[in-house]
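B., you asked whether I could sanity-check this one before it goes into the benchmark set. Here's the sequence:
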Amino acid sequence: MRVIKARDYDDMSRKAANIISAQIIMKPDCVLGLATGSTPIGTYADLVERYQKGDLDFSSVTTVNLDEYKGLNRENEQSYYYFMHDNLFGKVNVDLKRTFLPDGMEPDAKKACEDYDRVIAATGGVDLQLLGLGHNGHIGFNEPAEIFEAETHCVDLTESTITANRRFFASEEEVPRQAYTMGIKTIMRARKILLVVSGEDKASIVKEAFYGAITPKVPASVLQLHNDVTIVADEAALSKVSL
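And here's what the prediction gave me:
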């Protein structure tokens, strides 16, 4: 596990974009696993800027996203499909036929999850998986549990996650209670993993997840077992660990 300390959020975003850019340049037809949430927005903005300058070409890139809310259609501004198009896909030359997310409108959870696992397998595997870190240690929507969930599955969101996502909705009642998410085994199959984390409010979970015990009660802790993980975190997020 490699930890890169950034000065602040903007520096974290820039350093993470450097790593993703290098992956695209080294392998133009790479498969990127992508994340949503507030933390990677700066990284996506930096990638868009590089594309606009002519430094990056997304035309042969394939993307698979970690998760999607169950029950939100793609036109909903809070869907992750909408998020990805608003922050990245609609601003670069990626082939939209090569961008994949779980189908949040598929009511049959078993079918939705099996379908998405087949999509991921058909890509040949994720070259670089981008992750954020939840306050409770979740990655994707893999919430604290008794076991590490293996494949794509439907998860009941915890109250802490619902509360954290409340700011994106008009009211807490509108926040979906379920989501489809890649499982831990699927994430761990990625050839490289890049995790971005920012802010003093994440300092405790950074210490617990990456310097504590490996346990499904802190899902991100499993990343300690992966052979190619890079964590890009700002000083505030790393304030409780010694490097």
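One thing to flag: The chain has one domain: 2-234. Otherwise nothing jumped out at me.
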